[in-house]
Structure formats: C-alpha cells, structure tokens
Request: fold
Amino acid sequence: MNPVDPASLSALPVVIGAARFAPYLAARSGDAAEALRLYSWNVEASAAFLGAYAALEVGMRNAMHDTLTSVFSSADWWHAVTLAAKDSAQISDTETYLDGRKGAGSWGAGHMVAELKTSFWEGLLTNRYHTLLWEAGLKNAFPNYTGLRDDLRKQMQRLRLLRNRAAHHEPIFERDLLVDHKFMCELAGYAETDLQTWIASHSRVPGVAVAKALTISGARLTRF
Reply:
C-alpha cells in the first residue's frame, strides 16, 4: 500500500493522544497538518536511527567483550575482576534470568553479552575502571581511538540516550540528527572501520534528516 498524507487522517490526533501530540503542535505553531507530518517524520527518523544503532551496539559490546576476554583469559571475565556493586548486581540478575529462561549450564558468555544493558558497557569506561579495565587493555577494543577515555564514554552516552528516546517514541525532531549520525559513524570506526563503513553506507538517517522540511510541507511522504 502506498503511503498517504497523515494530515488527511482526521483520527490521528486522537490515536496519538493529546499530551503526546502537544509538542508537535507547539513546534508548528498550532498547524495540525504540519504537526501530523512532523510526528510521522519523527517516527520515521526514530526507526532509521534504531536500525543504525542496532549495528553499532552489537559491534561495540562485542569489541569490548572480546578484548576483556583476551585480557583476563576468560570468556566470563566479569568473574575475574571486582566490579562495582551495581554492575555486579546486573551480572547476577542476568545470570538468574538466563538460568530461568534457558536452564542453568545451558547458556554461554554470548548470551550474557546480549542481555546486559547498554549502560553496563558504557559504565566500563567510567573513572572507577580506568586502571582495572581501560589501562589493563580495554582501550585496545578501540584501536583507532586516540582521545580521552571519558570523551569516548560521553559519546556512547549521547547515542544511548538518543536511542532511549527513539525507542520510547519520544520527540527527537529538534535534534541535529546529522551530527548524531556523524558521532555514530565515528564511534563505530574507533572499533572497526568495516563497522563504520557498514553503518555509513546502509543508514537511512541522513536521508530522512535532510528530508524533514519536505515532509512537513507535504511534498514527501514518510515510510517507517
């Protein structure tokens, strides 16, 4: 089915909900047609970002896990180091979850890596782990990075918070998504240039971002 102009769908403001729709109306000075197109663009932009971020997240956590596995000569390296209480608790909770879901002894390190929250991996770049992890070898997960560890963490945090907004259907239309996309490609390249090339060549974010004005005017229709 070909897409239709969301401004022609009179029930959409009710479907979306007044509170959720309000920021879009405000952004378009009360013009309901433009606000609906902006909302539809926001959904499209969020979907595009989440697709690219999925590639980045898997690449980042695998690079960090593989490096720490080598550093500590153990696939379950998290048992070979003393983690902060909240990080240790996340490991324990995930082990309990995996035991219940797959059965004790029937899952491996890869399952743990997939289940741990993005914030866990980001947290490994905080000051508390500078000597224990970063200097011990975690920095080798990012062979093309020459900056400060905390700047790398902040870049990961920026993208994670944007991911959270996109995943929870929150407004991201006021952001400069081209800058966010640039940071995403840079971060991927710090770990592996092929990952950077994959994201840069497949991501729909740049195209969606530059089409925002056309979309709001009604000259372009969105696709999720």
Q: What stands out?
A: The chain has one domain: 50-208. Residues 32-72 form the longest helix (41 residues).
